[in-house]
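Hi C.,

You asked whether I'd gotten around to modeling the 335-residue construct. I have! Everything is below, sequence then structure, no commentary in between.
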Amino acid sequence: MRDASARSRAGLTSAADPGPEEIDTRVRVNLPHLRSLEGRARKLTLLPRQPVSSVLNGRHASRLRGRGLNFEELRGYLPGDDPRTIDWKVTARTGEAHVRVYSEERDRPALLVVDQRMSMFFGTRLNMKSVTAAEAAALVAFRVLDQGDRVGAVIFGDGHVSEFRPKRGRTAVNRFLTALDRANRMLHAEAPRVDHPLFLNQPLASVARIARRDHLVIVISDFDGLDARTGKLVGTIARHNDVILCPVTDPISEDVPRNMKLVVSDGELQVELDTGTTEAHRKLSDFASGRIAEILKWQQKYGTPVLPLSAGSDTVDQMRRLMGLRSRRRETADA
């Protein structure tokens, strides 16, 4: 019997068995949950024109450059043409004013870099960091689809990297969501330990190879395992693309509590950290703040906007707030 309800009536499943789709979406995601976010992504925009209070607005440290321009033609100057488009070399050579005509490119491919390593399988308040990253990536994918642009992705775990070159259409988004679901399912407490887990550098190297220029690259990760090469790769990608960095954190890293014992495990070995000691508390606090500080340096150096996401809050509300929109709760109250 393939029908779940028929199997239940026949006693082939227990009441405690939730079935394949009944999961706690704070711990892991599945395709139905990711697809359900399409409607909640309304009003989010990744185009250059942003609300005044959006972190992607030009008032802030950086902004989106938007789609590129294609050269169309060289023609004679007409009344009303922008003088800044005059090609002075051709004008001097021909003796008549000529202007260069450009058109905006039809689309700007988006490449989503989504971290699903075991370091992301952690949460203390609302979501696992891996869930927040997956939800944010799905929201962005649906907005890019709605804008008519192409969607691609680099999804990576501790021992795997999946690449999807940007393509247009719902089929491309579904392929991405399916791969994201598959990567998220690999995260669990009994997952085997990987001898040489991936740092962020390998996925970023894939991005540098795929996104040569004029892409929108969004990196959603906890940025575990940064080194000097990571910053260089970010700078290389940002030189010819728009790059948005979305560091995903857990509330505990923002304010490490004192007098708490943490058991950390890699699946085989485990260690207990006691934040009751001044030295241990200081080291944990410095470790958490140091990672964010490095990302903010990239913002200043390379002009990469930073959209920080917390696993302790609703993903949609956070993204709306970062982009200068009111929360859904406030909109409902005002209605």
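If it helps when you're writing up: The chain has two domains: 31-58+108-326, 69-104.

Thanks,
B.
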